[in-house]
Specification:
about 10% strand, DNA-binding
DNA sequence: AGCGTTAGCGCG
DNA sequence: AAAGCGCGCTAACGCT
């Protein structure tokens, strides 16, 4: 492993944000053809114009910044590539985009650090919404640095391809863009260092080229499996749809309006209530002045059928709606993809600057399948694109729980983690006391298994400030707080801090703000949209440290170590607490080893080195490698059996 | 026809 | 008045 480590770029062996104080940089902006917003992964796109500035301390400049512009495609930009290779880092607004193009220009992108001004805006924003639409334009405006050349900008917005514009206009636009972007970078750099955000910013920037690499390869569907499962679901759906039509007379069960009318007026079901006896209602409409009763799966599960017809209806309507959703949100698209494309590969954008907790989000490209919420049942529809290869998944077990235990220095939690105590068993022993005691707390018995499974939904709810429910559930939430006093005290402290200062500073330097929240009559702090602040304050530090720092860092090192080891295997996705890869079978053991190293020891080391955090709670990587993503015999039996 | 909003539901 | 958190996508719906 040591050999591989020593092949890593220096900014990973010795991560140090002070490299950004250097004025040996290259600020770059491309004007490209405009298919899919200039997506560098689309081979039909090309660069039209490159404009860049080398910084004052660049070997090619004589003590002051130099502006350069070149017409031409990605094969004619050797000078730009050379300038970046001689820089300590390059800079751009939305550097993930430039990484994609620079790769096409021949730059070995993962070895080059960037300063992305869009990520800079996002880090400065913390969790504030305006940070999530951090266009260059907005960033300039908020600093009163003026806008961009609006004339050419308008043409671009209206779909005119830069390759069709008069060269003089485009060049002027490109130069202004780069000059202003460069000014923004310098100004933002002062702000980020002054606010103490440089460490987390640096960490964010390690992730950017890795995200570009991951999203550019996509995920590969297994045509045979997709076809078979699609048919199975379509057949089942048709049967249910016909039966439902007969019962309802042909209403659309996916329409909350039609369903509410049918359930609560026509069939005269009582409107279901929550544990407090309060009716479950959505916003009022013309037909329902008190609120439209819920028609979702939870509400339907609470209804009691009396007649045979009613019973059958309740039995199948939720199943039907679920099947319909599975078809429209997954299987139809998967089938289109395997039928319409040669290789059956799905692509998505991995968005680094969208979420309030600084975890990733993703947006599906052509087939609109986002990479963070694939239905678990359909993961085994993904295979490796090379024949004989495997799909591996490495995930951080119980990550958010362990992070909460760390943040609260929670003794009971640490004991349970180090001794392998089952958290759901504790939940079951309270919420399902009788059943649990009857089976002696043995989760292998049918009763024990049932109680434990039903408990899972409640176990970690208190981690995020949840406290209400049935008397049994409330008893568990109380018991959790009593048991995990470290976590409870940390939560109380965060909440009181936010009530005092409307902000919370993480150990990494990142600041979260609730400054638009207002006190209500009961002295509760409420966000502008009406939701309370307390729970989000409990959630934010945990979700951020776990999925906004720890997993990104582990994925970064996993990616680079795989490269350093000259592995043919490659990463294809990352989902909050996991990384997914296509694996050459000869590299299976190595993938396993590198995953564990990246998700455990390297994290402790990085958090200490970068943030002086002593992460004294063990992390545990779990690695699975199969022919398909999350594949197993039970799944095959259920979904592929003839 | 196109837009934004709502309900519902998938993921961690 | 009370409410576990964070996302993106579809269909329905109401509006222009």
């Amino acid at each position: 492993m040591k050999d591989y480590w020593e092949k890593l770029p220096d900014f990973l062996q010795n991560p140090d944000p002070s490299i950004y104080r250097s004025n040996n940089y290259t600020y770059v902006d491309f004007e490209t053809t405009n298919i899919d917003k200039g997506d560098p992964n689309n081979p039909s796109n090309s660069i039209v114009l490159a404009v860049w500035i080398i910084g004052a301390d660049h070997p090619g400049s004589q003590g002051k910044p130099v502006l350069k512009a070149r017409w031409g495609n990605e094969f004619e930009l050797e000078e730009l590539v050379r300038d970046i290779e001689q820089s300590d880092y390059f800079s751009a607004h939305n550097a993930k985009f430039e990484y994609g193009w620079l790769k096409r220009c021949g730059l070995d992108t993962p070895n080059h650090l960037a300063w992305c001004t869009q990520v800079g805006e996002y880090v400065l924003a913390g969790n504030r919404k305006w940070g999530q639409m951090c266009s260059l334009e907005k960033a300039l405006q908020s600093r009163k640095m003026g806008g961009k050349d609006s004339h050419v900008g308008k043409l671009m917005k209206n779909g005119v391809c830069p390759s069709e514009m008069p060269k003089s206009w485009l060049k002027k636009y490109g130069k202004i863009d780069v000059l202003k972007g460069h000014d923004l970078m310098l100004r933002q750099r002062r702000e980020i260092f002054k606010e103490g955000l440089h460490k987390t910013f640096f960490t964010h920037m390690l992730f950017t080229p890795v995200l570009n690499a991951i999203e550019s390869v996509g995920m590969c569907l297994d045509k045979d499996r997709v076809t078979a499962v699609h048919k199975k679901f379509a057949d089942e759906l048709r049967g249910y749809a016909r039966e439902l039509d007969e019962i309802t007379g042909g209403i659309n069960t996916g329409s909350p309006k039609q369903m509410a009318h049918f359930l609560y007026r026509e069939m005269k079901f009582a409107i279901p209530k929550d544990h407090r006896g309060k009716e479950l209602l959505n916003k009022p409409s013309e037909d329902w002045p008190d609120g439209v009763p819920h028609t979702n799966a939870d509400a339907i599960a609470k209804l009691k059928g009396r007649t045979k017809k009613q019973k059958r209806f309740l039995e199948i309507v939720a199943k039907h709606n679920k099947l319909k959703a599975a078809m429209s949100k997954s299987l139809d698209k998967f089938l289109d993809c395997v039928n319409e494309t040669e290789d059956g590969i799905l692509y998505a954008n991995l968005n680094q600057t969208r979420t309030v907790t600084h975890r990733l989000s993703s947006t599906g490209k052509h087939y609109k399948a986002q990479f963070q919420n694939f239905d678990r049942r359909f993961k085994p529809l993904f295979k490796a694109r090379n024949s004989g290869w495997l799909v591996g998944e490495a995930d951080e077990g119980q990550l958010e729980y362990r992070v909460a235990v760390y943040l609260g220095q929670d003794k009971a939690g640490l004991y349970d983690i180090t001794h392998g105590v089952d958290a759901h068993g504790f939940t079951a022993s309270i919420i399902f006391k009788e059943e649990w005691e009857a089976c002696g707390g043995d989760r292998k018995t049918p009763e024990g298994k049932r109680a434990r499974t039903a408990s899972k939904a409640h176990t970690f709810k208190p981690l995020y400030g949840g406290h209400s429910g049935t008397p049994r559930q409330v008893a568990y939430y109380d018991a959790f707080r009593e048991k995990h006093q470290g976590i409870s005290n940390a939560q109380k402290q965060w909440i009181s801090e936010v009530y005092r200062n409307k902000r919370l500073t993480m150990e990494t330097g990142l600041v979260f703000y609730w400054d638009d929240a207002r006190l209500n009559r009961n002295g509760k702090l409420i966000r502008p949209d009406g939701r309370p602040v307390d729970q989000s304050v409990c959630n934010t530090p945990v979700q951020y440290l776990a999925t906004g720092e720890i997993v990104p860092v582990s994925v970064v090192y996993l990616f680079h170590l795989m490269r350093a080891a000259n592995m043919e295997s490659f990463l294809v996705n990352t989902v909050h607490d996991s990384a997914i890869a296509e694996i050459n079978p000869t590299e299976k053991e190595l993938f396993n080893k590198i995953s564990v190293l990246s998700m455990e020891d390297i994290i402790y080391w990085y958090l200490k080195t970068m943030y002086d955090i002593d992460f004294n709670v063990p992390l545990e990587a779990e690695v699975e490698v199969e022919t398909h993503w999350a594949d197993n015999p039970d799944w095959q039996k259920e979904y592929l059996a003839a």
